[in-house]
Amino acid sequence: MKGKRGRPRKYRHGIRCPDCGSNWCKKNGHQNGKQRFRCNECGRVFTPEAVRKKHPPEKKLLALKMLAEGMGISAVARALGIPEGTVSCWLHREGERLKRINKEKVQKIKKETGLKGVDSISLNEMWTYVGARRGEKRNSKFIWTAIIEDKGKKVVTFEVGDRNDETFLKDVGEDSDS
Predict the structure, then answer these.
(1) For strand 25-31 and strand 153-161, is the pairing parallel, antiparallel, or unpaired?
(2) How far is Cα 128 from Cα 97, in angstroms, rounded to an integer?
(3) How far apart are CA 114 and CA 148, in angstroms?
(4) pTM
(5) Of residues 97 and 174, which shows the higher confidence score?
(6) pLDDT of residue 168
(7) pLDDT surpassing 70 at residue 176
(8) Of 94-98, 147-151, 163-167, which range is least confident?
(9) Residues ≥6 apart with Cβ < 8 Å to 178
(10) Measured between alpha carbons, how far is 120 from 109 in angstroms, rounded to an integer?
(11) What phi, psi does 13 have (nearest 5°)?
């Protein structure tokens, strides 16, 4: 047998894949009157003339806040004048980032408490102030609590400090039997 069957791959001189930079691309239909290509190396489908629009981080943060307040994806897209797919992509990426952070926090709690097979973890935070309620002497604090159940045994941990990851991940806690 002589080589592979089928059509030979096309080497395109003026076309480069935006992901891997390969010139081995083939035509893959049209979209909005523009020729699309598919990279033979990584499989990415792209339009060479497409220009990616970079949105300012403030717009992304505003969109995520609007979503957190209960607005729908299409409503956020209309209000900010951006495509729904962009808002959906931002939401998905932020969800993945938060999932990763949450997993790190749970692993830190498991490591600090020495528990292996955790049945459930209940996390909470509470805001309070120390000293004056208003003015320059105001001192806001957050109380982080975690109740971890492991085979009937409860471990309660807490930390007082600012509302940030460093405070949350500090290793403070006392064991208590239920």
Answers:
(1) unpaired
(2) 28
(3) 11
(4) 0.48
(5) 97
(6) 60
(7) no
(8) 163-167
(9) 152, 153, 154
(10) 12
(11) -75, -40
From CA 158, how far away is CA 122, in angstroms rounded? 12
Please, which residues bridge with residue 142 across strands? 127, 161
- What percentage of the chain carries pLDDT values higher than 70? 72
Per-residue pLDDT at 81: 93
* pLDDT band at residue 3 using 50, 70 and 90 as cut-offs: low
Confirm if 19 and 39 have CB atoms less than 8 A apart.
Answer: yes
Task: Name the E strands within 14-152.
Answer: 25-31, 34-39, 45-46, 120-131, 138-150
Q: How far, in Å, CA of 46 to CA of 26, rounded?
A: 11
Please identify which residue in the block is written with the tokens 């045994």: 153
Let me know: does 10 contact 35? Beta carbons within 8 Å. Answer: no
Tokens 């949350």 appear where?
168
Neighbours of 39 (CB within 10 A): 22
Q: Give the count of alpha carbons within 13 A of 16, CB side only.
A: 4
Structure tokens at 97: 């980032």
Question: CA 28: distance to chain centroid?
Answer: 31
Q: How confident is the model at residue 177 (pLDDT cuts 50, 70, 90)?
A: very low
| Orientation of helix 57-68 relative to helix 73-80, angle to 10° | 140
**For 55, which DSSP code?**
P
Predicted pLDDT at 132: 63
